[in-house]
Fold this sequence. Notes:
The protein is built from 10 helices and 9 strands. The protein is an alpha/beta fold. The strands form 2 sheets. The chain has a 7-stranded parallel beta sheet, with helices on both faces.
Amino acid sequence: MRTIGLTTAAAIAAAVVVCPGGAAAAPPPGACGSDPAPASPVVTELPWAQKTLDFRAVHEHATGAGVVVAVVDSGVDADHPQLRQPGKVLPGQDFFLVGDLPGGFDCVSHGTGVASIIAAAPVAGAGFTGLAPDAVILPVRISESDGGTEGIDPEVLARGIWYAADAGADVINLSVAGGVDDPFVRDAIRHAVERDVVVVAAVGNGQEGTAPGPVTYPAGYDGVLGVGAVDMAGVRLASSQVGPQVDVVAPGASVLCAARVDGHQYRDGTSFAAPFVAATAALVRSVRPDLPAAEVAERILATATPSPGGGAYGAGMVNPYRALTDVLVDAPPAALPAVPRPEPDPAQVRLSAWWAGSTSDARMFAVLTVVVAGVGAVVALVLVRGRRTGWRARRAELPPAEPARDELPEEMFLVPPPPADR
């Protein structure tokens, strides 16, 4: 875990007091190890993921109102134009720096992008919006990393997960992945599952080839929905991990999301696929608050659009509309009733038999007619030729044989003959 001096900590605390209940767009003094990422340009076009998942139809049924989604990440810029609405981003908690600091600021835009995919509010001039725009974001700052688990203290990650579960989160998004099965993180996941929280995690971006690699965590833990990434064509990103931790896939290539301070960025990877599934869980929990977390996860998997890629795609592409509208039952499919064999109609049987016999007789008559006609034609030809010749036998006359020649014809010489022959 990164530590800072008492003087810097006091400066940060003072900055927080100046902005009570929230965070400034610029991180507090000393919060970032390097210069924070600058603002980005605003993108006005409608993103492909928003079209593919049909946000407009989804929002006719739910917008995620009343659901708290914890984003355990690099923090969330609470002053972004699409996240600054009152109550949109809670103060949260910073577990990366020493001191009682909020989680509502971001140095690298990673957590801000994740939070915006979940709950960004629509604003004039921007085509982008969150899948659950009325959900509330609980920012839990556990790193200044732009993805992966490198440089993330597993104890800090575990503390962030534990805090999110106890702070009232209905859904936890973990856009982090690594190959270490850490007991602290495993215990924190168990605690969140016991608190009836839907836990969603990215499966990671370290895939090489197509064969399943080692299981990644926290996506590989029981009770966690592991999310892989696909592109516009629905094909898995080559870097998206393959293995038993993949439960479902979501858009993860050239995904548009918010960046710290202002504007938008296009991002790739499973980190930005996971929030589409977390937002879907928020939508379901907003309209079905009675459903336990395990049943919310089952609904997401049962309504996913199947992908032609087998286990690399899990249950398929997340489908928020079906997750909200499909009627699911617990009972197994009912057995199909036996199809009764209809009794044949005697009159129809007789008519079919008559037609079959008539067809057979007609076919035989046609064959005999052809044979008789052929025989008649041959006989007529013989009679005509016999009368013409007086019924006398005719002997074929062979053409006269030509005498054999010892030499080739003169015209066959292509050059003048020898002088003796001239």
